[in-house]
Amino acid sequence: MPPIDVGVGLWSMRATAAAPASLPVLYRELQEDARLAEELGLHSLWLSEHHFWYDGWCPSLLVASASALGATSTLHVGTGVFLLPLHEADRLVAAGLALEQLAPGRFELGVGIGYREPEIDGLGIGRRTRGARTEHALDAFGSAWTEGGPRVWIGGIAERSLRRAADRGLSLFLPSSMRLGQLREVIERAREAAAEAGVPLGRIGVLKNAWVTDGSTAEARRMGELIAANTREYAGSWWLLQGQLGFAAPELLDKQMERAIETAIVGPPVSVAESIRELAGIGVDLVVLHVSADFTRPAYRENMRTIATDVLPLLQ
Amino acid sequence: MRAEELGFDLAWIEEARALAPLVVAAALAPRTSGIRIAASVGAGPNPVTLAEEAAVADLALGGRLVLAVGSGDEELLQETVELLYHAFAARPFTHAGPRWRAPARLAEHERAEERMRVTPPPAQLEPTVWLCGQAGPAVARRSGVAFVAGAGDARAQWDVLERELGLAAWRVRRPASIAVDVDVHGRFDVPHLVESLRREQSAWGMDVAVLELPPALEPAARERAVRTIAGSVRPRVQIDRLPAGLEEHWNDADRPRG
């Protein structure tokens, strides 16, 4: 089996309706969870970004990442994903250099372009400028981080995203809810684009909804329902499904939920390890197991332990 | 963190000396538990972004952040402060100023909101913001926010602030930035520094002294300087009058024992 790193995600410090929490406590827990992930020998801990949401969803991942990096000494900390066009490139360059000084080689900058209009508009950015702003930022990194800077992972599967990664020799951060066949196809296209560009492709990471169960159907079903319900909350509010916001198109929303459950890695250690091996087999070299969410508090820590003690050894 | 071990109240991180002060401040969060961290940035960036970063840094620090914003441009600093405070206030707002509109409500956006709320809120209920640079005092006068004084003109500026704000002028801290002339071995004139600090305290009520050390000090010299400040300078400026004989007693054994 080709080597594959196993990280955990996604930390967003959200105090949701389903799982209320104290925000300062969530930020303290981020530091504690980073220490735990490091103790357990996991490769990385990943955060996610949104703006102006009711639950306090973390809008400043570089600042939050710094606190996780400050709490640890070997753990990698990554952004899955940092919304690149919503930030200014020069400040991002400076922040990347600061993080590289603070924690050399440990910060992973996964980037996306964002899609939620109130966030984009709230920051005064025109949605049509996102592509150009993304290109500008990637160019800025390329010239400023020649002596060293964070690894950059391009999120998304659109042709444009794959080209951006391939042309610059960047890494890929593929989204959750993709079937194995789709992943294989996207990886193939990215490799072709990189070959055309004459530049070696970077790493290939994938985010996966995941949970290690006791093997019972009951627990698998329970977790599937939780994953679906969780995705439903923000997909219903934010995702445009054939032109309508999710909640206004319940049948389409249900299909999204079915796909989320179907593509999740949920099962006992043996089957979780098998799914990870399958991913390694198609060229994925980092899997981020999305076990940490508002709705899995506090049980996700036990799941992190189980991954470390019962799943990782099966991958040797 | 050494500054915390030595009992300093605040550590100052600024853009001229460190990249991305708010990022550096958050990195110090897990390594500290009492000291406040001041992150000093120039005005110019979108204040909504600054507010978000400061809120997250303050949450990481458990309420120990001071955000210092500086500019020589009064209009820029004024609008930055306005938008920062809207953003920190944990309630929906609309802002339309000379530089920024938040939400922007650009024509190309079909789903823009009329009002926005910046989340998460900072840990502090009343976030600490200090103004720096040439425009600091003028904007401070209008907004009831503290400014960080430099050498010389603090008394006159605080007199004006007191006249304009009345009792509100006493609601905020009175910080000053003071350069300490430390030699390559980490030594400096202790009585002279103590005297300067006492003078600023009594002239205009300075209550936070941010002591600036030369940037190129060798680690051993820096350690000597900060230990001397912690053990010999700081105790001498904590109360109005020291009992007779106490300073002589300290002179005999005035290094921290830790």
Characterise the protein shown here:
The complex is a heterodimer of chains A (316) and B (258). Chain A is α/β, with parallel strands linked by helices. Chain A has one domain (5-211, 266-315): Luciferase-like domain (TIM Barrel, Alpha-Beta Barrel), CATH 3.20.20.30. Helices cover 48% and strands 17% of the residues of chain A. Chain A contains 11 helices and 11 strands. In chain A, the strands form 2 sheets. An 8-stranded parallel β-barrel of chain A has the order 1-2-3-4-5-6-7-11, surrounded by 7 helices. The radius of gyration of chain A is 19 Å and the shape is globular. The mean pLDDT of chain A is 95. By secondary structure, chain B is α/β, with parallel strands linked by helices. Chain B has a single domain, classed as Luciferase-like domain (TIM Barrel, Alpha-Beta Barrel), CATH 3.20.20.30. In chain B, 38% of the residues lie in helices and 15% in strands. Chain B contains 9 helices and 9 strands. Chain B has helices at residues 2-5, 21-28, 47-60, 74-88, 136-143, 154-165, 190-204, 219-233, 246-252; strands at 10-14, 36-42, 65-70, 95-96, 101-102, 128-132, 146-147, 175-179, 208-212. A 5-stranded parallel beta sheet of chain B has the order 1-2-3-6-7, covered by helices on one side. In chain B, strands 4-5 form a two-stranded antiparallel sheet. A two-stranded parallel ribbon of chain B has the order 8-9. In chain B, strand 4 (95-96) and strand 5 (101-102) form a beta hairpin. In chain B, helix 3 (47-60) packs across helix 4, helix 4 packs across helix 5 (136-143) and helix 5 (136-143) runs parallel beside helix 6 (154-165). The longest helix of chain B has 15 residues, at 74-88. Chain B is globular and about 75 Å long. The two termini of chain B are 14 Å apart. The mean pLDDT of chain B is 94. At the A-B interface, helix 1, helix 2, helix 3 and helix 4 of A face helix 2, helix 3 and strand 5 of B.
